[in-house]
Amino acid sequence: MGILGTRRRRLLAGVAGLGAVVATLPLWLGAGATGEGASRCETFAAQSAARAAAVSGSGAPVLVVGDSYSAGLGLDDLTTSWPARLPGEVHVAGFSGSGFSPGASSCGARVAYDRRAPEALARLAADDPAGADDAVVVLEGGLNDVDQPSGEIAAGFERLLAGLEGHRVVVVGPPLAPERAAAVPRVDALLGELARAHGAAYVATSGLDLTYLPDRLHLTPEGHRVFGDHVAAALSAGRPAR
């Protein structure tokens, strides 16, 4: 396929992804978000759709499922969030505030990873069936799970991995964001154990020297660069980066 054909395919895929997210917005809101929470969820859904429409790179397909770090919350340009640093044709399914456990998000269980990952793969398959089968799936998160019981995180992780059978899976753990640093080690260790139990690579980010926005939680553009390059090195090496 020529360059113009590739660009046209990406544009159509982006529009389709935007439509899919907008179409499912009532389902997300119906999962429990009301009032101010609904407005917040609407904002997150719009940002998620915008980020999903921006496919970057070329080569083997990579699907990133993640939280606000993947969605680019706090950045002037959402499309520069850390997945843009990864090798391959990168598709992003990020939703701010979401996590591995169904209770991680105030927008309801509908946005948990085990629900969104299969939908993102289905959208990818609709555009490129052969590519979807070979896609590497990168699961980034954990910061929104820090107040959730370990059993809920593990159960969500098990459901998630069950739906990704046959794919190379890379799990990217949470960094020591100052706002939640004290609660990160438990989730970091748990996700590492779960990943290894399923034969998935685990990329720890708790040792990275990252820069944060004034909220002491979300990354600056430079923080995204360091975070993304760290994950990219792990993907390129085909093994976890510690």
UniProtKB/TrEMBL annotation:
Keywords per UniProt: Hydrolase
Organism of derivation: Nocardioides kribbensis
PROSITE patterns: TAT (PS51318)
Any GO molecular function: hydrolase activity
TM ranges: none
SUPFAM superfamilies for the chain: SGNH hydrolase
CDD domains on file: SGNH_hydrolase (cd00229)
Alphabetical list of Pfam families matching this protein: Lipase_GDSL_2
Ranges of residues in domain SGNH hydrolase-type esterase: 64-226
Name the UniProt record assigns to this protein: SGNH/GDSL hydrolase family protein
